[in-house]
Write a structure and sequence with these properties.
Blueprint (H helix, E strand, L loop, with lengths): L1 E5 L4 H11 L6 E6 L11 E2 L11 E4 L6 H11 L3 E3 L6 H10 L4 E4 L5 H16 L4 E8 L9 H10 L7 E4 L11 E8 L5 E8 L4 E8 L3 H14 L5 E3 L1 H7 L1
Parallel strand pairs: 1-2, 1-4, 2-3, 4-5, 5-6, 6-12, 7-9, 8-9
Antiparallel strand pairs: 7-10, 10-11
Helix pairs in contact: 1-6, 2-3, 4-5
């Protein structure tokens, strides 16, 4: 499985490269891409998509959402599947992803963790069992993370809306007004070197259920991305996610 790592100079790009160089799931890094030159020694890296000489079997993208359109333009031209692990996409960028998925298979997930996928299902089960409960989501990340709330927190909230169809999402809380019953609150904390924590709190007047996932190392996201690439290769065009991979694996 020949992979191209987009954002190879970043923390997650380096994690993917490390696991691929160790041969995880037969992955072989044949190229890297980044906006700034990166000396990986083990494989060539590029700063221009047009300069890439070897077509990979799959692209794993852990770069920045602003570069999504250019990356997908290359992927569509070469008919290369994409594991899109970036977050914070604008509505325009999301539409670019949707259009590209009509030509190539794209695995798009705000979080590449199997544990988060399980957290989603457990939270939905609890929310369905307690239809009158209040729901709050708290996410914590390192102080260098750019987007807030995190893509994973938004993923959790939108999945919960499937069992709370009339729920509205509230990011942060301030002012002098009581909590509305239909709200799903989302709160972001940025401090230190926290890899990632996501907590779903489901509470009634008589009891509270707290579901929490904590990432101890960034390698778990790299592992998930390589597993997603392995799953995606050979699939027809379309959008895929962690839930579908779990169902079909």
């Amino acid at each position: 499985m020949k992979i191209l790592i987009c954002g190879v100079g970043g923390r997650m790009g380096r994690e993917v490269a490390k696991l691929a160089l160790d041969g995880m799931r037969g992955a072989v890094p044949v190229a890297g891409f980044d906006l700034l030159p990166v000396d990986t020694r083990e494989f060539p890296t590029y700063t221009e998509w047009s300069a890439i000489t070897e077509t990979p079997d799959c692209i794993i993208d852990f770069s920045h959402h602003a570069g999504t359109a250019a990356m997908l333009e290359y992927a569509v031209e070469k008919r290369v599947p994409v594991v899109l692990a970036t977050t914070g996409h604008t509505e325009e960028e999301t539409e670019v992803i949707r259009r590209a998925s009509e030509a190539i298979p794209i695995f798009h997930s705000a979080n590449m963790s199997l544990g988060i996928a399980l957290l989603v299902e457990l939270a939905k089960t609890a929310a369905k069992a307690f239809p009158e409960a209040d729901i709050e989501i708290v996410e914590k990340h390192h102080n260098r993370k750019l987007d807030a709330p995190s893509g994973t927190a938004l993923l959790l909230a939108r999945e919960l809306q499937e069992v709370r169809e009339d729920a509205t999402l509230i990011c942060g809380r301030s002012g002098h007004a009581k909590r509305e019953k239909k709200e799903i609150g989302i709160h972001a904390i940025r401090m230190g070197n926290i890899v990632g924590e996501h907590e779903v709190i489901i509470g009634t007047d008589s009891q509270t259920i707290t579901l929490k996932h904590e990432a101890h190392s960034r390698s778990l996201f790299a592992e998930g991305a390589i597993a997603a690439a392995d799953f995606l290769i050979g699939k027809p065009e379309g959008l895929y996610d962690m839930k579908r991979m779990l169902e079909e694996s």
